[in-house]
Amino acid sequence: MLRSHVRSLDSAVVRRDPGSAVHGAAVGALAGALHAVVVAIGMAWRYHELILPPPAVGRDVLFDPASRLLGLGLGLPGDLFQRFYGPGVLAKTPLIGELLIVNVLLGGLMGLALGAGIGRLLGRRGPAVKAMAFAGGFVAASAILHGIVLLLLEVNQRRSRTLRYYVRTLAERLVQDAGADLIVTALVVVLAIWLAARLGRAWSVRAALGGAVVAAMALIVGQASWPGSAAGAPGITAAARFTTRPTNVVLVSIDSLRADHLHSYGYHRETSPTLDRLAAEGARFATAYSVSSWTLPSHATMLTGLYPFSHGAIESTHRISPRAPTLAAELRRTGFATAGFVSYEFLRRRYGFDVGFDLYDDFTTDLDTEAAERTARTGPLLNEQILPWIDAHRGRPFFLFVHYFDVHWDYDPPAPYDTMFDANYEGPNLRPYLDNPAIHRGMPQRHLDHLIALYDGEIRFTDDVLRQVVESLERSGILDDTLLIVTADHGDEFFEHGDIGHAKTLYDEVIRIPLIIHWPRGIAAGRSIDVPVSLVDLAPTVYELLGLDAPPGLEGESLVPLLVGAERPAKPVYAHLSARKRNHNWAMVRHGSTKYLQHLGKPHAELYDVTADTREQRNRFATARERPAVDALFAWLQEEWTDYRHLSRGEHQIVVDDHNTAKLRALGYVE
Length: 671
Prior knowledge:
By secondary structure, the protein is an alpha/beta fold. The chain contains 21 helices and 15 strands. The strands form 3 sheets. Strands 1, 2, 3, 4, 5, 6, 9, 10 and 11 form a 9-stranded mixed β-sheet that branches.
């Protein structure tokens, strides 16, 4: 009797009373389900040949504001799921299920509120009037959600804007970007009202509301128990056998240093006599890659052996996760004295680089003015601190990390390095780098040649600064017992692909970096290794050379087999750029001689044979399908994003203060 009464009530609500909370929730849930299917199929078709970017990247966020807002509300990074899917329509079918959860949940909540409100305001009006009011309110609520998301995107750019600017921009983007989705929303809510009125008992109100509850439970349980790789892989064992071990470790990073501008890497100028000497006496990796094209994520990977998504430092507001093991912390635990001397804003202790160091000098080069930040020669300032520290610690094992910044723009080397490679230049002043009208795409080749000569002068200047450290180790009698590694975080481009600087692309000019390992007692002199390797391999290599087991979960692989002449199968090399501007958001894999670049903000991909096309000028993506490279990048992105989602938002985010912002602005990293 009671069950019959409830079924009759369900039918009456669905057929006769659009203005009720229960009916509204049911119609909203159905509209959300229809919207999810339409949007997922549309996005899957649009990107059917490419990896689908996360919904919160680029304009696609506007097709799913529910994910964005619910994700923010739950403290998740960016949006609700942010997953990557492989090429092909079928590979993207999980997208339907993910969008279904959030759209059914949000649609049901919106419908519940609208139905209750309409019932109260239009209680005596007919079903047709209530249905029109419901449809209009549902579309209006969706427009408000889009507006909130658009406003968040604008505010997230951290620019000081006027209210008039925000209102105008919001109106323009609602029309241009959100218009298509609002049309879809209007159509599906009308269809949901029509279906609800005709399906009757076959589509129970209780079933619709139950589906929303199940979706909410799936959301909560999924976020709490999603399988990740936080536990990591088994620890790397010190498999290589040496008759001796290094006593000390010195890791030197030279900011913005391209591999192809070093003489030992084939460059025509004598830019690097000290580095050339170390390469001749040790091992030179001819094809080493950074994991990104800017300073923060690259150095964090260098010191942890983790990819950027795993250590968390992928944006200027993110620090290294406290859970990430660092070389300094591990070596100090085993008895090494540890010191770091750095010269750049992105390596300050606020980003977590000081963890494990007995002394972390990020203050010697923390200069007061913007002009000083851009033009100071910081290498000699650091050496005034480094050389005495070496002398004071030569009696015990030590780990020394040094970061030289002078190669980074502005390209303003001191005399005689400023004229060393171009003494007869008579054009405009190119030393102010940022906002210099003389530096632009299409600038005269003679002027560009001089800009490159200034860059080369900075390299030679820094090479001589490094020579002082090498000579100090030599005078102390500990050079042969020291594992000395010299590398870089990224390079700089000079309009090879239409732009200048770095942090914009993942072409070889910005991610192919030098890697030289010098240890006379253990590594044969003059070894040149062509196998592609990555900065993520650096920390595991140090652990194995020292005879230590690496911490569990490292994502790189030791390079020791290559250093001792053993065979090691070629591994894919990955890089990722999460840029401050959405147009510069890329992922990359080098697989054999194939290099595959995928833009993560729009449907664009590039494919190069870097053996035959070393300058990456002939994009073969339209005519060739390299499934191994594409599948490898897809699988890596899925795994890395899972790791990133397991980082607590609070543990790797920092507050960027006015001082920090001013320094980054002086260096051109914020507007």
